Amino acid sequence: MRLFGKKKDPKMNQEQVLKSMEGLRKTIDDIGKRSQVLQNKAQNEMKDALQRKKQGDKNGALICLKRRKLYETEIGKLEGARMNLEQQLFAIEGASMNKNIFDSLKTGNNVLKQVHGDMKIEDVDKLKDEMEEQQEMLNELNEAISQPIGMMSNVDDDELMNELDELEAKEYETGMLDLDAPVVNRNAPVKVAEPVQKKVENDLDDLYNDLQM
């Protein structure tokens, strides 16, 4: 005798649940078959009752009607039992589906815990700061590498332009640079002297006349 609480029923595994639902479906199917047999018998008893009445066998007709009534009563009981079993089966199927959903959610949650097990928000922030530091260092290195080295690092563009202006002024003073001289276009076509051009044309005409003879 248990003094404290009630003994809990052992938990059923998924295989046992499926087997239980299969048993309920078979019972429901058997009830349907039994109900169909009784309905056929009830119809036959009704036909016999009508036949006996036509023959004047009143007692025989009453007996057929009584048997028909028994069959109909049994059919009603079977239909009620089948309805209860169908409701129970529906409830078990719903509970089984809920259990599967719960197990899936639980499994997914455990996976997330394992994935995030080694991750902390502090570690993420630290990693982000380190990445930003590395990027800043990379930018500084790129800038340092692109700077000129040696003598070119001390050259000032403004100083070079000033030296060029001074050199130009000195050459102008000494006559080395004629700023008013026309600029020669080296890409312009060369113009052949007119007498030479005329002679070439005459030679071509003579050659053409000789070929025509």
Average pLDDT level: 79
Give the low-pLDDT segments: none
CATH superfamily name of the domain at 14-115?
Answer: ESAT-6-like
Strand content: under 5%
Query: If you consult CATH, what is the topology of the domain at 14-115?
Result: Helix Hairpins
Largest sheet: none
Shape: elongated
**Name of the top-level CATH class of the domain at 14-115:** Mainly Alpha
Count helical runs. Answer: 5
Helix/strand class: mainly alpha
Number of strands: 0
Specify the helix fraction band.
over 70%
Which CATH architecture of the domain at 14-115 is right?
Orthogonal Bundle
Kindly report how far apart the N and C termini lie. 147 Å
SSE order, one letter for each helix or strand? HHHHH
Rounded radius of gyration (Å): 57 Å
Tell me about this structure.
- The termini are far apart.
- It contains 5 helices and no strands.
- It is elongated, with a radius of gyration of 57 Å.
- The protein has a domain at 14-115: ESAT-6-like (Helix Hairpins, Orthogonal Bundle), CATH 1.10.287.
- It has helices at 14-54, 58-115, 121-146, 157-174, 194-212.
List keywords for this structure.
213 residues; mainly alpha; Helix Hairpins; 5 helices
How would you sum up this structure in a few lines?
The chain has 213 residues and is mainly α.
Sequence-ordered SSE layout with sheet pairings:
Blueprint (H helix, E strand, L loop, with lengths): L13 H41 L3 H58 L5 H26 L10 H18 L19 H19 L1
InterPro entries: Snf7_fam
Keywords: Coiled coil
Pfam families: Snf7 (PF03357)
